[in-house]
Structures are given as C-alpha cells and as structure tokens.
Amino acid sequence: AEGAATAAPAAWWRRRRTALLELAAAGTPRYAYDLDQVRTQARGLTALGAVDRWHYALKANPQADILRTLHAEGFAFECVSFAEVEHVRRTLPDLAPERILFTPNFAPREEYRAGLAAGVRVTLDALHPITEWGADFAGHDILLRVDLGSGRGHHDKVKTGGAQSKFGVALDEIETFREHARRHGARIVGLHAHLGSGILDAGHWRGVCAQMASLAERFNRIEILDLGGGLGVPSRPEDVPLDLAELGAALAEVQRAYPQFRLWMEPGRYLVAEAGVLLARVTQVKRKGEVHYVGIDTGMNSLIRPALYEAWHAIVNLSRLDEPPTDLVQVVGPICETGDVLGHNRRLPPCREGDVILIAEAGAYGAAMGSRYNLREPAAEVVV
Ligand code: LLP
C-alpha cells in the first residue's frame, strides 16, 4: 500500500482529504501544509529533556507560518545564508539575535561580518575565515564546525562529513584553527558537527555526541556541543521511523557523562517533511509500449528530490483514494528532462485527466528547492 503504514495513525492528509480536494479545485500545483503536524513533531523533540536548545534548520522550509509555529514552540533557528538570517528576523521581529545560529559554508567575508554585526551566533567551518579575516572575530564567541571524518545520510549527495565533503574543519587542522583563534582573540565556545541528512538510526547521535564530547574536553572554554540535524522521517513503506525514546536516552547518557556541556541540535526535515504535501493535477495519460505514464502539472521545478537523490515520496490519486491501485505507472512532470519523474513504477488506480495527485512527505526541501526551470512557476504554498 502506498503511503500509510498500517500500524501508524493515518497521515493528516487522509483525514483532511475533502479540504485538500477543495484546495486543489482552487488551483494546482500547490504545496499544502498542516501546522498541527509541525507542532506534533516539535513537541516530540522538545520532550527530550537532554537537549538544551533546539534550532530549526530553516533551509528545509522557510515558509512564514511554519517559522511562527516553531518560534511559539520555543525553537531557535539555524541559518546558512545571511538572506536566511534576514528572513527569519523579518518574519519573527521579537526573536533575540542570539537565538539565531549562522552556519554558512564558503560564504563571502561580508556575510560573516553582517552576522557578527547583527549579534547572531556564528559557526566557522574552515580555516580561511580565521586565518584571513581573523580580526573580524576579535572578542567574539564562535562555534567551530568539525569534520569527524565520515558522513551519513539517505544519499551520497547529502552526506556532509569525510574527505569528499566540503564541510567542516578536519580533525588534524583543529589545532591550527585554535592557534589562529587565540591569536585574534576569538573564543571558541562551541563545537558543531552535522554528518548528513535523513538518518533513521538513533544510535548515530550517541556516537557523534561521544566523539564530540571527548574532542571538546581538549579545549578549555567549550560550553556547547551542537550535534547538527539529520533526523530522518520514514519515506519508503519499509522504513522504520526514528526511535525518539532511544535518541533521548542516548543524549541523556552523554549529558550525564559530560554535564559541563550544553547540547544543541538543529533538525530541519524531521519537523516539516510530513507536514507538507504537493497537490497536482493529471494533465495527460500515455502508454508507450509496455510503459504507462501519468503526467501531472508540475515536476522537478516544484519537487526536485526524486530527480536529484532518487528520493521516494508516496504518491496517491486523491480523487480516487478508495479505488484499487491496479495500474503500474510512471508519474512524470511537464519539464523537458528525462529525469523529470516523481515516482517510478507506482501502483495507482486508473488515472484520468483532472484527477488530483498527492505527493506526500514533501514539506522539507520541496518548495525550498523549487525553481522556474522551463519558466514554469513552482507550486504555490498554502496552509490548510
Ligand atoms: N544543520 C546543517 C549544518 C545542515 O547542513 C543541515 C542540512 C541541517 C542542519 C538540517 O538537516 P535535516 O535535519 O533537515 O536533515 N536537500 C536534501 C537535504 C539537504 C540538507 C542540507 N543540510 C534533501 O532533500 O534530502
């Protein structure tokens, strides 16, 4: 069965099918977001006592109502460009700048300067900023992003550790970094590591946390260990959800062993992926040889994840949810690329022009990665 795991409670979009069909009638393609789902995910995390501060990695979805919802749930924010810093400050005028963590990668000098001037927390992830622009950081508290030597994630393109990754300072360069920071009077108050995205194994953070804690003990001023994001959500029917209780226990264990450190985390996907669906309409159906195609009115311009990472999103025909999924089809978009396929070999009931197709678990890195390729506007966004 596409989408719904039998044991788990039905996805919100199944309960709200009528409202979604009405939305689709008003226009497709559209991303529809459910803020209750965002809240549920947020509360699952904040209930884990061991984490001192949760940040939302807003690159996953910077939509304003989502930011307001997570702000109300007590989240701080992690930004990777100064444009994201400005966006979150504009959206949440009462957010204290020190609750923004700015973690850019290969950004120009001006962005770091702007971040420092705005009073946000800045993470450096290379030697260059501290060796070449060290004076900029004099008297500032900074975090250092380290590369623990390996990456992890749902696809090679989302692994952010190890020799092949452009992120972080290698372990054997940390001493050099410290040396320059000391010389310029910058205080390293935190270590940061993010190994990748879409991790479903809770034990992962136990290892990362232990590795970082032992590293941090070599420094004298470290207060914060930022363990990054990467918390996955199941997408394929066979995926086992992340065990939050196990994650909580692992973090609590590390916290007991190293009470001198405050733990920070910065998930993106976990908070928003399941809260978003992409609604599209069938434009044409086609049979070529043995292959059936169902064409819809948006594709990789709205949701690039299948093309870029072979990501799997559940796809249903919302107009015919109760009909048996008898056809084996390729669900494709209208973009002039062979890779513009949203779902390979999916089971759907016979689809007709005008049917509403729902692509699930599209709230993270969906709209955020949209483009105007082929001058087709990506899907608009609406809160249900
Ligand atoms: N922190 C840092 C430093 C990051 O680079 C990222 C994501 C996160 C936190 C949040 O990761 P999350 O919890 O969302 O996994 N476009 C890809 C994912 C790229 C993630 C980039 N960095 C995808 O659609 O799967």
UniProtKB/TrEMBL annotation:
This is Diaminopimelate decarboxylase. The modification N6-(pyridoxal phosphate)lysine is found at residue 59. The active site is at residue 336. Keywords: Amino-acid biosynthesis, ATP-binding, Decarboxylase, Kinase, Lyase, Nucleotide-binding, Pyridoxal phosphate, Transferase. GO terms for molecular function: aspartate kinase activity; ATP binding; diaminopimelate decarboxylase activity. It comes from Dokdonella koreensis DS-123. The keyword rRNA-binding does not apply. The keyword Nucleotide-binding applies. Coiled coil: none annotated. Signal peptide: none annotated. GO terms for biological process: lysine biosynthetic process via diaminopimelate; threonine biosynthetic process.
